[in-house]
Amino acid sequence: MPKQVDHRDRRETIARALWRVVERRGVSQLTMRVVAQEAGISLGQLQHYFASRSAMLSFAMDFASEQTSLRVGQGLTRLGDRPHPRDVLRVTLAEMLPLHADARATSRMSAAYVLEALHDEAVREQARRGLVRGRALVEELVRQAIADGHIGPDRDPATETNLLLALTGLTPLLELGVIEPGDALTAIDAHLERLFR
Amino acid sequence: MPKQVDHRDRRETIARALWRVVERRGVSQLTMRVVAQEAGISLGQLQHYFASRSAMLSFAMDFASEQTSLRVGQGLTRLGDRPHPRDVLRVTLAEMLPLHADARATSRMSAAYVLEALHDEAVREQARRGLVRGRALVEELVRQAIADGHIGPDRDPATETNLLLALTGLTPLLELGVIEPGDALTAIDAHLERLFR
User: Fold this and answer.
1) pLDDT tens by residue, A21-62
2) CATH number of the domain located at residue range(s) A54-195 in this protein
3) Which of A16, A107, A155, A182 has the highest count of CB atoms within 10 angstroms of its CB?
4) A 142-161 residues with CB below 8 A of B?
């Protein structure tokens, strides 16, 4: 392995190969051997970057979260200065749903990861921390919106946060073509409409 | 295989073994060989009942849906005659979340099934039909509640149905211990409170 190959770059290339395996072939095909093959490297090379399947999966999930955050950040930039919290939530929720190719890859990765977390203590702890952190960011936004008078003071921030995150439950309906992307956005807007004053 | 062993019974026993594999070991371990082992039969015997992994998985999912419907039915019986549609929805949604052992098994089965459906055309079609059917039942209930004046006439039945089904999105929060069962029920109640007049 030439030294000039950046370690982080190579790990991201492997993570993307892992996503492709999850997206196209399913989590049941997710072995280090299959990911190495998809990434076009040997199993030995893969093991140089990730000591275990769990370590590889955890990195791929962290990278998926980062990519989602980046997309959300780009969406927020388009909203201009001091965007309304309703628009911030709309952009955030939309990027968490499989509404376009990039979001679909990270959404499938995330679903596979939660299932894996149920049977792997290390993955579980990391998945839990990630979800706690994401949930805290949304709750902070809700609390601030209440403080700023955008959301009624009678609303419970914790419950509203859980209801907002629950909107990712539209995912199976979208993935199986039971509803269209437009239906999901309409549902999100209807929910936000009632949350905000 | 003795003739007196009821075919359906044996298939249900295998389906339960499959659930246990999904629940305890994860979908990545879900092979016909592992399920046969868990069910305490030979791979040949398993293949007598299911010609393929897809067929086995589809039956296990149908059986999980049936079991969920049974639990919902039992919950509705406890509500007595002519229950309020809000209570019907509350019982239905609560049984779709992993709030107790039986519901957890069927919920994990369902999550694994959706992921599998993305990579298997036959599974996908069956999963889609199941979801369309379930969604139609909820929408019919919403439409009837609007007709009976329980839900405002300004509400769009399709959107309200999607928002109700989205509440299953609380599942990862519950599975990873980010929220407690009581928090999920509070969120469901808050949502229903605003849906009904």
Assistant:
1) 888 887 777 889 999 999 999 999 999 999 998 889 888 888
2) 1.10.357.10
3) A107
4) 156, 158-160
